[in-house]
User: What shape does this take?
Amino acid sequence: MSRLEHTDEESTLYYDSGVTHRSLSAINNRNTETEKALLLDISSNKEWMASVTRNVHNANSTYLTVRRLIAVNADNRDNKITIEDGKQATATEDVPLSFDISRLINGMDQNHCKFLSISRDGKYIALSFYYSPGAIKNRENIECFLFEVLPKSVRRLESLSFNGRAVFLNDEKDSLLLVDAESIRYSDFLNHPYKNTVFDLNIFVPGVEPILPTHHDSYIKNSSWLNLQKENDDIKKLITFTKHIRQNILIMPYDAIRIWSLSEKCILQSSINAEGQHIMAFSKSDNDAAADYKIENNTLAATYSESDQVVNVYNVKNGLIVYSLKVQRGNFGGTFRISHMYFCLDNRYLAISGMEGNTVIFEVWYLYSEKSIYNASRDMGETSDNLIQSKAFEPFIIQNRNNDNLTGFYMSKNGDQLETNFLDLHIVPGIVSIACLNDDITQLCDEYNEIDDNLMNFQNLKCFYVYMEGENCIIRFGKHTIQFWKVSSEGKSDGSIHQNDELRYIRAYKGPDYGLKYSFRETWRIRDYNSIEFTEGNVTSRLLVYITPDKLYNCKDHREEIFLVSNEANSRGIFDSHKFESACQALHYLYNAKGYKNKENMAQLRSKTQELIISSLNGIGPKSTYFTNIAGNRTLAMLASFGEGRKIIAKIMAKPFLISIYSYPKLSPETKMTKPKEVDEAIRNWRGRWKKLIGKQDNETSSQEDTSETSLVNSNCEPNPTNNTAIAARNENVLTVLVENSSYKLFKLLFNRVLSDSKTLGTGSLSVLTDVALFLQEIDSELLLPSIKKLSYIRISEDKGGLLAPELKAYKSSYGFHHKNVADIANLEPYAITEELQSYTYVGWILLRPSIEAFRDAKRIINYFTLTKLREISKEESTKTLKVCVISFQYFSLHNGYKGSPFIRTVLNRRGNSIFKQKDTVFEISLEYKWKEFVRTRFILICFIHALYYISYSTGVLFSRSLYVKGTENEFDMKHPEIRQFIKTPNMMHYILSGYNWVDFAAFAFPAYTVLQSLLGLEHFGEVCSVTNLILWTHGVLRLRVISHFGFALEIIIQLFKRVFVTLCIMFLAIVAFTISFIILLSSKSDKFFQDNSSGNFTSTTSSTEGTVDILNVSSSNGFASLFKAFSNVWLFIYGVWDPVTQGDAGDSKMIMAMCIFFTFTIVLVFFNVIIALMASAVEEVRKRGRKAWVDHFAFVVSEIELLWCFEYENKSRRNNPLFIYYVAKEETIRKHEKELEKETEELKNEIKKLENETKELENETKELETKELEKETNGLCIKFPE
Assistant: This one.
């Protein structure tokens, strides 16, 4: 391994400050009166800090200093800590190390931009510079200085000639990223310093005319690792792109924020429509979640809008908003500026830090409920602007790994010293002791007690009295629910639930992040009654409950955040998402609960929970984002699983807010099929019979088997079903649950609603609709075709469509946009943005860079003149009537190992109700895109290889005896892709049943066998070669099915064969029957019986000799002596060849003639006409199907080439499998499609309203009947006394 060389220069532990000789303080970073900081950077793990300072009194004295990040407690100066391995540790007085860099950087003019970066482990430091191209001075100073930190000194390593920013990534390899105005160089800093991977940065700028990204001056000015003397566009672009570069992420903030990942390749990870916002933080997923299809770890992105003072959390994968943290209590002042955000505690919390005036503010939000749970502030001793000018690092928050506590760090001014402070953020504040009505209860109640027990029954439930806003209320903790009641004074004497009792809050426990990690069908329970914690402050505002699964899962307990709602909030009609979600969870539990006895209490609980849900819905406004985030999606899926919940969904869709549904990559685990108990018992019985048969008894084995089975059944340790639960949760959403529950009308209505709202939300909301189409295909639903039809001609607003303004402008001006006939789907022209950049080696980049720049300039010139000419030729009306549409393939083309993508599995499974067997669907555009992008070139190459194969084989078999000789080295070696196809196919049975695969296998096996024949001199060589030749020709013809005309004709032949196959089988059996009949009739006859015998007289002209002569036709023989010969003769009867039964005495046999007549009537007349009629109808059906008949063949060829003839990196390439494909359609067609969708939506709404009214009428009638029956029973029990 190579290693960068180092110079002989080393640091000293002390330096001359120009005033006095002193050691550096471990806590006080610098004296602001004598030192001026130029740069400061903190390592990604927050353990180390590096800075570049200059003496105020001596401008030529500049030092590089590295130290541990040691902080003093803001409330107790005796408490000092540092961070080691992500955990708090007791601070030690480590002496900082310093290195004199005065002669390295002095003399640089104002055109220099300086950058500082320290590695994750604090061992390496990079000091880099950027020199403006327009300046001409001091170009010799453009180099990147590298330093290695030793235990007691700092030494300088060999510098790199580089003009740009050098930054260490957040990895353990100390990888260094070099970013300049034109390229990004990614390398292993220590082991392979010269083996760089280079990406062209100019490709990030979309369109023909380059535009600058949207930058935020506050971020550029407030970055402590940056020293910017003079701004220019290149510096702004470089700084903006590399804001989150330590996380292997590049940010491209144009009118939409594009996020690029550098983890493996430079791929487009997401496009977020968040104009005017800047990304502040990314989340980190658990290892299990990140392993799914190798999804990027960063799943959530937090942005901040300075103008609106709103923090929005987006899903990185689809770019949709997940949570919106709005200012409700005026937390942020007008001058407040957020400096740092941090996702913590399994991404359930978002910690925010910022500054306002001379105050630092820390705030923690609970994302699931969008509520702020913690807020703290401290005085910094100086205004934030002055601290930033002094290069103080901005406040940040970290999570300790050992105890999950949060700690905030900031810098403050103490006299003339800048020091680092820390503050422990207690998001779980002090616990308040609340008087319990039944402290003696320690054991959890039974499942039905929380339903059966009356409100004033405190024997089984943990109950607390609380005083809230002048009213006495009661909190009831059951095994699965928490209930918050305002008990009415008109309550019943027995304490049962009264109509006037007010249920203010109810919640049933669900698994954390249910809908992704756990299924909503599973209800969790409280761990024990001691796990209830009331927090400080308002008792009813927030409390904590620790819950655990009902079943013994291998998972830790979860801390549930409970936010009880006040009466004031209820009266104001404010929508509380937590209250709504909690009530929906409770309603789901109540309608699935079993074992309860008090039906009256259950009816009251259900009724009041429904009232709670409806009242919450009434407070929701049109701008609510609850049903566009993950929490709302989980709630919708849960409501869809039972009848009353589906009624609530119908009410939800009557509201005007936006709805979007999330979808996740489908997991397809390998599951073993378990044998039923009956089968196991039958196996044991037969095993016992066999042992008896061979005379062996093995009672010990059977007893051991029984014992082991019993121990398994009675074991208290269950296997961990977490993975199965996660699979079930990931594979379901509200649409799939509605289909599973046969609620088709509601499914159609919600499908249309999501499709309609996607025009406003953007392209990210379309991925679920594609995913649902795959689900409908798997279950072979009749909803597949109408659902796919709706995905055509989806027009998204231009600002939400995923295309940047320059890209949209270039696409609208393209030739295809102006001149492509887009009357139907068959003529759609696919278009995709650049989602993956081609990488270069450093040497290749140096060599190819001039050519790349020349090609780019030539392309811009050609595009400019071409587009200008097109604008002159084309009419304005043509561009106005054409609009850009989009279809999402986010998970449709996602490859999962050797099984391929859902696209490949869809085609290779050969389902009868496949997506590509529907007529004129927009999914065909993916085939067109793949065909033009990479399949076409490979198909031509494959055809060329096969042509050589056919020619060489045909030539070889003609001269085989002279070409192939035994003992030579002529061998047939061909690793056919058919073997790989058999291994990779998702369903082996579908592979075996496919006729194409049999032909492909025969085209491989028969030529190989003929070569063996020629080499070994085996018999029947000519016959096998003849059959092989026919197979190869058939194989070649089938290859042409990718061409539409050939594919259409081939489909006709296939359908003809399928249609007449059964008839041909019956006909074949009839011919066999006639064959056996003829054998029985004629097998005993001699050959003379079938030979003509002619007799006559003859006279010789040369003599008087006369006589008679017999002429016998010896060429005929008994054709029914063997089965094969008899069957061939009978088969030829079909075509009028009757010679075997018309010559000799056979022609005079009446029985034979009768058999022939019956054969003619049955086979020739009946069967032939039936076959002809079936063929005619099959041809007509294929003709009506039109393009649909060929698309399936086309899809099969595309999938086969993608699976077998592409490398793994090509299958995962975004260039071949983009997330979104755009196409052009006429506005008239789009409007027609939208009107049909609106018409269907209105009809569905009316039908659902009609059903609801009918249901209400039935319920009212049922109640009236029950009332009348009760009155009759009451009257019958009355006893009349005599007057």
Notes: The mean pLDDT is 76.
